[in-house]
Amino acid sequence: MLKVRIDLAAFRHNYHAVKTLVGEKVAVLPVIKADAYGHGMLRLAEECLKLGAPMLGVGTIEEGIALRRHKVASPVLLLDGIFTEQAEEALKFHLTPAVFTLEVAKELNRIGRKKNKKIAVHLKFDTGMSRLGFTMAESKDTLAQVAKMKNLHVEGIMTHLASSGDLQSPQTEHQLMRFNAVLEEAKRNGMKSVYVHSANSGAILNFKQSHFTMVRPGIVLYGAPPNEVKGVEFKPVMTVTSRLVSVKEVSQGEGVGYNATYITPRKKPVGVVMGGYADGVNRLLSNRGTVIVRERAVPIVGNVCMDGFMVDLSRVSGAKAGDEVVLLGGGYEETSVEKWADLANTIPYEILCHLGTGPRVQRVFK
Questions:
Q1: Strand pairing class (2-6; 238-250)
Q2: Which domains does the chain have, with CATH numbers?
Q3: pTM of the model as a whole
């Protein structure tokens, strides 16, 4: 079906671009959750460690265990935390959880006391995203209670910035003000965390004051920054291709695809491309999207199907079954992830996550 090419040189370039932006004194924690945004978590974990990343960021305990079973020995931060019943397993695989409930903190402290060891955790505070984290109202009491848990080592203190890609929003400044108050309270409780982190991709680019001692790049590593920064280039890492499985002449007035949402205005060649919504080709691209055949941009016609979609080949001379089709990337503006996201009324994150994974997708690293 689809072939996903992952450009490791582009990935390395993007990592170095982040490092240049934040400086040598700030650690870089690459976020490789959700199968590295569809790019291949296990392979890119190896690449990140070669680049000098001190720690890797994943979402769930299952992702962390997958890294351990792949012989990845570096510290791994579970950004989405754990449930209390997962504490023993997290420690068994030497995974570091983000902690945002006292119940989990107490359970980890209990296990640490039982094993006579200190358990590393990163305390997560909700400074305004209303997702994961101790609230501002409970932050003072939380820090006081955790400071008394002698078998916890607060290795990190973190928050997540909700609008860091929006330079017009005052939310980031407001969140950082709250986060700095949390850090002051942590100091008053004797906490000296190695890692203080709040900066996601947008904040890395736009808010130097958010860098603290570690940053968490995600989408910028994969070449889709939330906004442009003068003098800094990020290269797309993923290219998705397929092939024409059929080319035929369709008479004037014929319907193309389910429900005949496209009617041929004249006789024209129509090609069928392997790979449909089951493989991550968003159905909202029906009669809207564009792909590349023989270096020419051609429109998608009719509804995207489960296994494939149709294209109008009128602009292409000599197209035949077996020809390569560029769906995403390849250096064409028409097939950029930003263009796909705009047409599908979504964000580049979703496009990459869906196109890069799936049992029928062949992923190749180069």
A1: antiparallel
A2: 8-222 (3.20.20.10), 238-365 (2.40.37.10)
A3: 0.96
| Cα 50 from Cα 73, distance rounded (Å) | 13
Catalytic positions are 33, 258
What is the residue-wise DSSP string for 221-270?
A: GGT--SS-BTTB-----EEEEEEEEEEEEE-TT-EESGGG-EE-SS-EEE
From the CB of residue 233, how many other CB atoms can be counted at a distance below 10 Å?
11
Q: Say which DSSP state 219 is in.
A: G
Separation between Cα atoms, residue 100 and residue 82, nearest integer Å: 9
| Per-residue pLDDT reduced to its tens digit, 45-102 | 999 999 999 999 999 999 999 999 999 999 999 999 999 999 999 999 999 999 999 9
CB 228 within 8 A of CB 8: no
> What pLDDT is recorded for position 230?
85
How many CA atoms does the CB half-sphere of 333 hold within 13 Å?
0
The answer to whether 194 touches 155, Cβ cutoff 8 Å, is: yes
